[in-house]
UniProtKB/TrEMBL annotation:
Keywords: Glycosidase, Hydrolase
GO biological process: carbohydrate catabolic process
Annotated protein name in UniProt: 6-phospho-beta-glucosidase AscB
Cross-referenced InterPro entries: GH, GH_1_N_CS, Glyco_hydro_1
GO cellular component, one term: cytosol
Hydrolase listed as a keyword: yes
Top-rank taxon: Bacteria
């Protein structure tokens, strides 16, 4: 067997894209609740346009999403039927602390996640919990300025302390921040940042980066102190940048792009800022706002494993920003790869290459926390969805992961595909960009019955898990 007997097969979802119940159970307004569907979405995600509360005549997909808040028992039962070993899920911060700065948590919110974890236990599903996944109380944005304000470190410490204590014995696998490197490009969505006209955005962004990195290290410290069994990882939006050609300038451009993303995990895994980013800070007249015991906290509280999302590789070309926007990151064209419906390259071998790059750099266990194909599934006259294209995509990526383990010898803890059930796309706000093995009857405008039904890929993934990755349905 290539995969260990305790390999964690499963899927990944996030509160901001599936949970809904935005005004129920004492939950407060979150930044994801003010991301509209339509033309303004990307500018608001990036912090270029400010939206602090919902306005009329705009539809906000995250507010109700696929209503996992009320359907979680039904959904987890379906995942249990597939044989899931793990379910990656995230916490809505504003469900625990509605404003983010309260002294006491919201018991209704804590009980909701306890009920979710107990439901997972019924089916032998191990929760993998992302503490924050593009989801923070809006009050922390409007009153504190998001993560550019150091006070958020203390609010986050309070959050993680509550979570680690409440769910001790129920959850042992944790991730501190989702796709931490995306906060530089998706400033509002990932870090709650908005900017004044005369603001030095570089300074504000990297102040926020520092605060998030320190908060992540504190989470590792607190989590290990509360429960020595806790395994706490980081989470990177991965996908190697290839050079557009073998011209040294293109090779250098790719190296620089990759370093901009590895900077985050360099700190989380090695405990200090790498020299290359320090020089970049110098060139931009930026000074990292170290204070108190930041350096010691970073140095002594390293993550236990590295998780990452992988959808696509990207291409870097010297003196070009790229015209192709892949998962909120720019890329030059790649004439050697096919493209999926929303423009990302399909590159299974790139997963293996990326995994080797990450392991060579850090020598830490790996976890493939997201990987999947977004496609516009259309039910036939009988309501069936024959998503062979999704099966093919996942099969080839799992095969590449298998080669990384079997041939390259990489230690891989698990694989959670994105996403086992259709949910709201974070980049576009669409439901028509579907990833799931389970179809949800909901359209881009929020209309539908929310009825769940199995796609052809449901049974396929069920067999993959049952065979521990040996039966890929060739």
């Amino acid at each position: 067997m290539t995969f260990s007997k305790n390999f964690l097969w499963g899927g990944a979802i996030a509160a901001n894209q599936c949970e809904g119940g935005w005004n129920e159970g004492g939950r407060g307004l979150a930044n994801c609740d003010v991301l509209p569907y339509g033309k303004n979405r990307i500018d608001i995600i990036k912090g270029k346009m400010i939206r602090t509360e919902p306005i009329q005549d705009e539809y906000y997909p995250a507010q109700n999403a696929i209503d996992f808040y009320h359907y979680y028992k039904e959904d987890i039962a379906l995942l249990g039927e597939m044989g899931f070993k793990t379910l990656r899920i995230s916490i809505a911060w504003s469900r625990i602390f509605p404003h983010g700065d309260e002294d006491q948590p919201n018991e209704n919110g804590l009980q909701f996640y306890e009920d979710v974890f107990k439901e997972c236990q019924k089916y032998g599903i191990e929760p993998l919990v992302t503490i924050t996944h593009y989801d923070m109380p809006m009050h922390l944005v409007t009153e504190y300025g998001g993560w550019k304000n150091r006070q958020l470190i203390d609010f986050y410490k309070k959050l993680v302390r509550v979570l680690f204590r409440r769910y001790k014995g129920m959850v042992k696998y944790w991730l501190t921040f989702n796709e931490i490197n995306i906060m530089v490009s998706a400033c509002f969505m990932a870090a709650g940042l908005t900017f004044d006209n005369d603001e030095d955005q570089y300074t504000s962004i990297y102040n926020a980066v520092h605060h998030v990195l320190v908060a992540s290290a504190w989470a590792v410290k607190i989590g290990h102190e509360i429960d020595s069994e806790n395994q706490i990882g980081c989470m990177l939006n991965a996908g190697l940048f290839y050079p557009a050609t073998c011209h040294p300038l293109d090779v250098q451009a790719a190296q620089q792009e990759n370093r901009q993303h590895y900077m985050f995990t360099d700190v989380q895994v090695r405990g200090e800022y790498p020299q290359y980013i320090k020089k970049d800070f110098e060139r931009n007249n930026y000074t990292v706002p170290f204070c108190e015991d930041d350096e010691e906290i970073l140095k002594t509280n390293l993550v236990d494993y590295i998780s990452f999302s992988y959808y696509s590789t990207r291409v870097a070309k010297a003196n070009s920003e790229g015209a192709f926007d892949s998962n909120l990151l720019k890329s030059a064209p790649n004439p050697y790869l096919k493209v999926e419906p929303w423009g990302r390259f399909i590159d299974p071998l790139g997963l293996r290459i990326t995994m080797n790059e990450i392991y060579d750099r850090y020598q830490k266990p790996l976890f493939v926390a997201e990987n999947g194909l977004g496609a516009p599934d259309t039910p036939d006259q009988y309501g069936h969805i024959n998503d062979d294209y999704r099966i093919e995509y996942l099969r080839e990526h799992i095969r590449a992961m298998k080669d990384a383990i079997e041939i390259d010898g990489l230690p891989v803890m698990g694989y959670t595909c994105w996403a086992p059930i259709d949910l709201v796309s974070v980049a576009t706000g669409q439901m028509s960009k579907r990833y799931g093995f389970i179809y949800v009857d909901l359209d881009d405008d929020g209309n539908g019955t929310l009825m769940r039904s199995k796609k052809k890929s449901f049974e396929w993934y069920q067999k993959v898990i049952a065979s521990n990755g040996e039966d890929l349905g060739d």
